[in-house]
Write a structure and sequence with these properties.
Helix content: 25-40%
Strand content: 25-35%
Structural class: alpha+beta
Number of strands: 9
Radius of gyration: 18 Å
CATH superfamily: FAD/NAD(P)-binding domain
CATH topology: FAD/NAD(P)-binding domain
Shape: globular
CATH class: Alpha Beta
Order of helices and strands: HEHEEEHHHEHEEEEH
């Protein structure tokens, strides 16, 4: 579980992902928004949240999309793109995220002024191209991004659930 650039996987000969078409690049900003503003702007109750996905020509010819989801007192807003598309279009992920943050559609949720309190970026393997059928060798078991266990279904990207399940199964096998 040592991540997308797993040295253990490379040293064991289990990872040889080198090409940009085998990766996604995600960037995310967390923006402070008061709890009452989230409830009002998204029409959600105290223990509810909202999520939105964005696709289309918002990002020009760069293949990918965007997302927004509510937290208790903040919004997580981000983009995920095919790395080869970013390279081909000479696009900068942070500029594409800024384009999403400043899009008129988001103004209804962000308001006129907002503060970014966190910024993160993540390289994600394209599991359709790199997922390992047998993510093990000798006494080494790979889980999560090291094993290419992210799953993209259109705009929905899952991975943490696969990593947790694989890690639990690996721990069970080790205990036995």
């Amino acid at each position: 579980a040592d991540g997308v650039n797993s040295e253990l996987a490379r040293d064991a000969g289990l990872m040889d992902w080198e090409n940009p078409e085998e990766w996604f690049q995600g960037v995310k900003a967390v923006v402070d928004v008061p709890e009452d503003a989230i409830r009002e702007r998204f029409d959600v109750g105290d223990d509810e949240g909202a999520a939105h996905l964005f696709s289309g020509d918002l990002f020009g010819d760069v293949r990918g999309g965007g997302f927004l989801y509510t937290n208790e007192a903040s919004l997580s807003i981000g983009t995920v793109f095919h790395l080869d598309s970013l390279v081909a279009e000479r696009a900068e992920p942070h500029e594409l995220l800024d384009a999403l943050l400043t899009h008129p559609l988001l103004a209804q949720w962000l308001g006129d002024e907002y503060e970014e309190v966190e910024y993160s970026a993540k390289l994600v393997p394209d599991s359709k191209k790199v997922a390992l059928r047998e993510p093990h060798r000798d006494r080494l078991v790979l889980v999560g991004d090291a094993a290419g266990q992210m799953q993209a279904q259109g705009p929905i990207i899952k991975g943490m659930n696969h990593a947790v399940t694989a890690g639990a199964l690996a721990a069970e096998a080790f205990a036995e």
